Every structure is written in C-alpha cells, then in structure tokens.
Amino acid sequence: MSQKVTFPEDFWWGAAMSGPQMEGTFEKPHENVMDYWYKTSKEEFFNGVGPTVATDFFHHYKEDIKMMKSIGMNSFRTSIQWSRLIKDLETGEPDENAVKFYQDVIDECKKNDIILVLNLHHFDLPIELFQKYGGWESKHVVDLYAKFAKTAFELFGDQVHYWTTFNEPMVIPEAGYLCGFHYPKYVNKGKEAMQVIYNLNLASAKAIALCHEICDAKIGNILNLTPAYPATDSKEDQETSKIVDAFYNRSFLEPAVHGVFPQEMIDIMKENDVLWDQNEEELEIIKNNTIDFLGVNYYHPKRVKTRTTPLDCDYWSPEQYYEEYDMPGKRVNPYRGWEIYPKAIYDIAKNVQENYNNIPWFISENGMGVEGEERYINEEGKIEDDYRIDFYEEHLQLLAKAMEEGSNCFGYHAWTGIDCWSWNNAYKNRYGFIALDLETQKRTVKKSGEWLKKVTEEHGYIAKDSYQ
Ligand code: BG6
Questions:
Q1: Is 346 touching ligand 1 by the criterion CB < 6 Å?
Q2: Quick one: signal sequence residues (predicted)?
Q3: Domain spans of the chain, in order of start
Q4: Which one-letter DSSP state was computed for residue 2?
C-alpha cells in the first residue's frame, strides 16, 4: 500500500556546497591545500581538471541562487574560504574583494528568501599555514583560524543566522594523516592524526565562543557520522566497533555536544603513548563551548571486524584495532564505491535523540555521485536521474520514521545543488539537482530537481515502497 511520507511545514529543504568546490580560484589572495595539491600533481585529478574554474559560482552566484530557489530550496550551505576572505593570515585582516563577494552572496540569499548556513572550513587550509607551521598539527594555526572566524563574524554575524565551524573535521586527520587520500597524503601517522583531532576540536570551540560573543546567531559543527557496524555478534567484533566509533565518530561528536572526549579513546592513546598535547585551559574552552545544533553528513556506514593481520607500518594508528569488513551482498554505488545503506540514517537519528540530548540537528549532506549522467539525457535535454530520486526517497523515509519517534531533526540538505568539483575525482561523479555543462557552464535542472520542488510544495511524497 502506498504511504505518504510527511515532513513539517517549516522543514529545511536544500543542499550543501562549498567554496573551494564551487567558486573557482578567481581573485583569491592565497592558495589552499587543495589548490596546491592540484598545482603540483595534476595527474592525480580526474581528466586533469582542477579547482581553477570549478562551477564558477564566483561569477554565476546570482543565477545559481535563483535557480536553487526555483527548485524549492528554502535553505543552503556554502563555505567562506579562509584563503579568499583573509588577506593577512597572521592578523585576520580581510581582503576587500572577498568581503564584497561574500556580502553579495548573502544579499542574494536574502533577496530570494533562502536561509543561508555559512561554514568556515571545508578541508581548505591555506597552504602557507601548512608549509610554515605544519597545518592543523599546530596550535598557532588554531589561533589563526580563530582570528579568521572572528573576522567573518564581525563582518557578517549580524546578517547570517546559522554558522558552522567545520565540514567533516574527521576527514582532515583520516584522509590526510591515516589513509593518504587528501593532501598532505600521509599514511598511518596516528600520533599526528590525534593531535589534529584535538586541535580541530579546540579550534571549533574557540570559534563557538567568539560567535556567541559577537553575534546573535546559532553555530554548529558538520560531522560525517559513519556508524560502525560489527561484522558479527562476537564480543570481539562488538568491542572493535565501539573503538572505531570512538575514534571516527565520537572523537568529534562527544566534545561538540558534551564538551568532553570519549574516555576509551583517551585510555587507548595513553596506553600507546600517543596522547595529544593538551592543557587544562584548553579543555575548559572545549567543555564550555559546545554547539547549538548539529549537522550530519551521511553517505555510507563503516563495517568493521577485529584485525587478524598486523598492520604493516612503523607508526601507531587506530587502524591497528580493526579491518574494514566487505559484507557480502551489500548494495554499492559502483561509481563511488560506497555502500548504500539508508537504515543508518535512522540509527544516527536515534543515537542523537538518545545519547546527545536530542539536540536540534539536520542532515547536512546525503547524496549519490554518478558517472556519465549524460547517458540519461532525454529529448528535452533533461537528465532523468531516477536512481537519485529513489536514493533520496529511501533515506528520507527512514529519517521521517525517526522523527515520528521524536528525533529532533529540522532539515535535509542534499549534496549538492549544482554539480561541483571534488577532491581529485574532479567532475567524474555528478551529485547535483542541477547539471553543469563543463564546456559552456550551462546549468540544467535534472529530474531530481523537479522532484525536490514537488516534495517541498507537498511537504513530503508518496513512497513507492516501505523501506526498512
Ligand atoms: C563529502 C564532502 O564528504 O562528500 C564533499 O563534504 C564531497 O566535499 C562529498 O564532495 C562527496 O564526496 P566526493 O569525494 O565523491 O566528492
């Protein structure tokens, strides 16, 4: 029997994007780590395409914001690039062109009655701060980030009502220091990764303190929560999954909401002599400056089993405790290689409800990247991305169920509004409600964009199936 899946009338519908993936590098006073990575290793990027032009939001923001509004979005997130806004990285003095650009974007959102969420960091540390100070391993960089945040709040804090300190902070140590996916591409540097986790939490807390001091706005943090499911019911695998959860999820979630770090993580770090450098004053800052709301990026779960073969490296790493479990029969998005498991969204929602004060939260990213979407173009020139609509409907149904049971979710943002550039996959996998022609920069609404419009008008949709 068909069932209507409904959402509150004031629910946020929208999409996330980020400065470094959308704007292009026009007029930026500094390069960020991703710009530099591309400049020095072009061959590592799909078809050699870099962030230089990207989706050219820098020149197209007016039409883009209007177009996003036209498909029903009442809210959207982008990020201010540190490497664009700040001219003098040591003092936090802003760049005039950048102030004008971000002010224009804010004005355009106001004009179109779109709630803007401004994020302060989307993997885009200015490269000089990595080269001079070692990037996020350095507490001086934490203070420079706080200066950048202060400048942003002073400039725009009276006009922007929702801020976030970081996008997926865990990706910085994980992809940059443990797995080698992102610049600086270190592998298994566990001790350094732990310091980065601590420093990012400290930076977030310092920005929260400044935001509350300077503006009348709410501030949150956007975390990629990847529930760690054990391969089996064995006691060992269950314990392993708790350790993985502590290092990869709770390392940011606990301090963000409760102001403290997971004790089992601290114990393991102490046992292995890799505890980060911390002091009482900093821990107080983290304790006293927790988030007002939580953003959750959810794409795929993490399936884990207890490690049976020793990790082949000289460094300590949390990977010593687990191996990825390749579950037979799992659904996979073949273009990105990520498991599709909508039930995790329900599990996350219940976890936030039951263990994190039922804090107001929203899905800040969820989506499906597909390669070669031009093969789905119909006679009218529109991409018929039914697979994406199915993906959203399945996830939303599980989200609605958790909300009915009391989880305090106030919105759903997809990744992404308009196809955008990505960290070394460039434009291989497309995620947008709106297609981008890279040659002409022409934007065309996809079928999923039309679907979104209808969902927002009807505050829900009729489910094709009942997903569990
Ligand atoms: C999220 C990031 O993890 O996933 C985005 O916040 C990213 O920046 C998105 O683009 C999709 O991942 P990818 O690697 O396919 O672009």
A1: no
A2: none
A3: 3-463
A4: -
Residue carrying structure tokens 């540190």: 82
Tell me whether residue 90 is one of the annotated catalytic residues: no
The pLDDT value recorded for residue 389 is 98
> The whole model's pTM is what?
0.98
Q: Which residues contact 19 (CB under 8 A, 6 or more apart)?
A: 78, 79, 80, 81, 84, 122, 124
> Does ligand 1 lie within 6 Å of residue 369's CB atom?
yes
Q: What is the pLDDT of residues 335-377, one digit of tens each?
A: 999 999 999 999 999 999 999 999 999 999 999 999 999 999 9
- Environment class of residue 206 by beta-carbon count within 10 Å: exposed (0-12), middle (13-18) or buried (19+)? buried
Among 183, 415, 431, 436, residue to substitute to test ligand 1 (most atoms within 8 Å of Cβ): 415
Query: Are the beta carbons of 210 and 149 closer than 8 angstroms?
Result: yes
Q: Whose CA is nearest to atom 5 of ligand 1?
A: 422
Mean pLDDT on 303-322: 92
Cβ of 283: how many Cβ atoms within 10 Å? 18
Please name the residue whose Cα sits nearest to atom 12 of ligand 1.
422
In short, whether 444's Cβ falls inside 6 Å of ligand 1 is: no
Which class for 354: exposed (0-12), middle (13-18), buried (19 or more C-beta within 10 A)?
A: exposed
3-463 fold: TIM Barrel (3.20.20)
Active site residue 168: yes
With bands split at pLDDT 50, 70 and 90, how would you rate the model's confidence at 2?
confident
In this predicted model, what pLDDT tens digit does every residue of 212-250 receive, in sequence order?
999 999 999 999 999 999 999 999 999 999 999 999 999
Interhelix angle 190-214/251-258, nearest 10 degrees: 30
Cα 11 to averaged position of ligand 1 atoms, centre (Å)? 24
Which of 171, 165, 198, 195 has its CA nearest to residue 183?
Answer: 171
